[in-house]
Design goal:
7-stranded antiparallel sheet; elongated
């Protein structure tokens, strides 16, 4: 895809309204295009600011009375319009208000939550790696080879887990992008299933609920480990993914 086509899709991408194939193409393009990457960051920041700063409240009953009291008094001369005209006009205005409110509520509810957005980003990163000719940047089953590879590439040192005894074979590691920052992605295999484990420093205000999510047929598990956030993503069943989480926690 060219920049013009990508930028036309960025709004839908930020809102979670594009399919996985398009999302993968957009992610792949942005890796090598600073302009589109900056435009996406601007849209995400604006979207988050609007959602964060908008004020929602239910107007109290006395507010309507104050508004009526502030309106100019009606002329004493009786209007030539029949009563049924004003009744219909009032009904029409009420219906228009209901439609406007329903549209606004629907628009608000359609905005993905932070949990949904993170789940989508994690799945896109996982799928993108599966479609790539090189799903890992450093290919090794030795954690003592994978861990040093991250040195100097991240501002933190991710722990690389040897889970061979639990049936999860380490394939290697790579850099990925999640929650607007570069993160470590460790890749494991369990039989025919590939599991991506994303690790990044925890944010103090992070609250992901529920901790187990499903997006586009992929299962995700989120947990905190010390001062790190961990996301595990795979197409395997949730029970096996929970087993993977427990294997990480005991190491």
């Amino acid at each position: 895809m060219e920049c013009k086509e990508i930028q036309q899709l960025l709004t839908g991408y930020a809102d979670g309204e594009v399919g996985i194939p398009q999302a993968v193409e957009i992610e792949r393009h942005m890796q090598n295009c600073p302009g589109c990457r900056a435009e996406h960051a601007t849209q995400v920041t604006l979207r988050a600011a609007i959602k964060r700063d908008m004020t929602y409240f239910q107007a109290p009953d006395h507010l309507a009375n104050r508004i009526r009291a502030a309106l100019p008094r009606a002329a004493t001369v009786e209007s030539s319009r029949p009563n049924w005209y004003w009744n219909r006009l009032s009904l029409g205005m009420a219906l228009a208000s209901v439609v406007a409110i329903a549209w606004s509520v629907g628009l608000y509810l359609s905005v993905p939550s932070p949990s949904d957005r993170l789940a989508e980003e994690a799945v896109v990163g996982h799928v993108r790696s599966l479609l790539s000719e090189h799903p890992v940047d450093v290919a090794s089953s030795d954690r003592h080879t994978v861990k040093p590879w991250f040195a100097g590439k991240l501002d933190f040192a991710p722990t690389v887990y040897d889970l061979t005894a639990e049936g999860f074979s380490l394939i290697g590691g790579r850099l990925d992008y999640l929650d607007r920052r570069t993160v470590a992605a460790l890749v494991y295999r369990y039989r025919q299933h590939v599991i991506s484990l994303f690790i990044s420093p925890s944010k103090g205000d992070r609250s992901v609920s529920p901790s187990t999510l499903t997006w586009q047929g992929y299962h995700l598990v989120y947990w905190k480990l010390g001062d790190m956030d961990c996301w595990a993503v795979s197409d395997t069943d949730p029970v096996l993914l929970a087993k993977f989480k427990e294997a990480v926690l005991v190491h």
